[in-house]
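Reopening this one. Same input as before:
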Amino acid sequence: MDILIYCSDFGPTDHQESDDYDILLDMGQLDIDQMIRRLMDVVNIGQVTFREIDLYQFDQTFWDKVGVCLKELEHRVIGISYIMYYTLFGKPNPSFNRGSLLDIPFKSIEMALEGMPLVYLPDTIRSLHLQSSYDPMHIAPGDLTMPLEELYLYGDFSAPLLPGTLPSSLRILHIAAKFNQPLDRTNLPCSLTELCLDGSQFNQPVTDFPASIITLTLGVRYTNRIDHLPLQHLVLHSNHAIHIAMVELRYLRVLKLMSSTLIDLDAITSTYFPNLDKLCLPMITSTSDLTTLPASLRRLNVEPYIPQEPHLIYPNGITSLTIDRSYLTFDKVAAFNVQGLPSSLTRLKLVNKSYYIEPSELPPSIRELYYHRAKPEHALAIMKGLPPSIRLIQIPLAEVPAQTFIRVNDTILLRLKGGVVANECMSGGFVNIQSIIKCLEQDMVDADDNDEDTDNLLWH
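Same output, byte for byte:
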């Protein structure tokens, strides 16, 4: 059970979605003692998060009482987090002696660097989010004495990272700020496995990183050489980087290109990526020939940008294909063309509410079908003609965006967790296909679709 402790008296927080937390304890409705009793009564606690807002900040009295409770819970919970409120100028709550946090077993804290000296952070901290919105952020060697595993730097951070600044225990480093300073094995610890520079101005050569770094994300400003052989997962937000002459990245398994401009596929070949398993391509053209992609490729995600149905030539050998057109605001999309799908394909995911699939035309090799954002009439057609080869299907159902079912036999499916369905047809885990069809027919009745043309897509 994940628990959020907050106050709703002065407006909602950003983290009140039921999907994020199982239990919400509202300090606008409870006093401190009532909240502590409610918290102690929970049997299986996962994460406990304390979140401040501008007009309700946890004061000294709060932490004096809650701190005792949290010490008792320390070995019963996965983690305790504190999202500290900070103003535009990073001014802390003046009534709170933040030095008292040293005795509270927080695992994660989000704070403004101006809000509290780092020396006041407890040694239990493993994840630290630092924001600087007033003064330029400076972190010196010796400031981070706790055995941090994750560090996130935001805001006005542009100073060099001196050797010895980052803890030797650090595994994940994210910098989303004005940072554009050299990074290499002199200032990056050999424990680091993931480095994310998306959102920063970083444009220094990637040529002398510790061998431990296997996951790397580079931002839109990056135009330099990428020469780091151990990489296994690479995310590029700039097209320039993929055109720069690279060394062979023989261990790279996942490549994600996040740029909104057209991609030159000539740079993505077996020469540079001989073991590439997954590729994400945004905004490619409708006539792209994808057969030149690395022969090792098994998982492909594409985002065609044109309103017409994309006629892509897919590479042989892929087993998973995702076509995401969720960003399109119009509905006039033709029936999805399954004729060109490779015979190796076992998993198909379509993300667009206007895609229509003719069930009888699906290749028999497909075992998993993810039909995201499908209209009720399109999902209904699939369920009425569900091919026997489909063993797993995911469809929108009864106002739940994605309901996942595993096929048990010709008539019975097992519903997996995917949200609560408030429909008598869908109570319980094992569900008859006819019950799903009945539920989809009700969805069609309830749907408010103003585009009459899309009603005919089912028969297109």
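So the earlier flakiness isn't reproducible anymore. For the record, The chain is about 10% helix and 20% strand.
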